[in-house]
Design goal:
Shape: elongated
Order of helices and strands: HHHHHHHHH
CATH topology: Tetracycline Repressor, domain 2
CATH superfamily: Tetracycline Repressor, domain 2
Low-confidence stretches: none
Structural class: mainly alpha
Strand content: under 5%
Oligomer: single chain
Length: 196
């Protein structure tokens, strides 16, 4: 993709974030997004085939970026405790730094339905949690984390970390520093780690 096309797509994604955050998923029409981007609606259709295509691309872009952030954070780190600490810290920091994009993506995920009518957030994708599950599995297997079903450990970790997302959904200006200071030690205590 050429620079101009890439820059225009990014502009449209940013306009979609702002539009969804301001008026919600259901009212975020292509015309509203185009207006915010200050381009013609027909130009939007050159880059994205529909509102659905644009908004699903936004979701993919936002959560791919989050995944890349946590993957980079754990790269080269040994040991499940250290890897989970790096993962968790990077996750919360990314949500904090990208709060507006995260908030818009979550609005889309909880409002959009897949072709079969299932809400998008209910569609499971093992790839989304594969890294977290591998860290938790390693910690449980080597005794660093308390013994529990992997699904329980994964759900526990997701719930703690996703609280940061809920906080920015409720208040885009929330200060996540206190949460960040408490969430990781809380998660480690729940997993039975003494040295967190």
């Amino acid at each position: 993709m050429r620079f101009i096309e890439s820059a225009r797509r990014q502009q449209l994604l940013e306009a979609a974030v702002a539009t969804v955050n301001e008026i919600g998923y259901h009212r975020a029409s292509l015309a509203a997004i185009a207006g915010r981007a200050e381009i013609a609606k027909s130009a939007v259709l050159y880059y994205f085939t529909s509102k659905e295509g644009l908004l699903l691309d936004l979701v993919q872009t936002v959560f791919t970026s989050l995944g890349q952030t946590v993957l980079s954070a754990v790269d080269g780190i040994d040991g499940p405790v250290e890897r989970l600490r790096a993962y968790s810290t990077a996750y919360i920091a990314h949500v904090d730094a990208e709060r507006h994009a995260i908030a818009a993506a979550v609005e889309i995920v909880v409002s959009h339905r897949a072709a079969d009518g299932t809400l998008l957030y209910l569609v499971e994708d093992e790839a989304d949690v594969a890294l977290l599950r591998s860290i938790l599995r390693a910690g449980i297997d080597d005794g660093r984390f308390r013994s529990m079903p992997l699904g329980v450990a994964t759900g526990l970790a997701e719930s703690v970390l996703d609280r940061a997302i809920t906080m920015v959904q409720r208040n885009r200006d929330v200060d996540l520093s206190e949460f960040a200071d408490q969430a990781v030690p809380f998660l480690f205590r729940a997993l039975g780690v003494d040295d967190a």
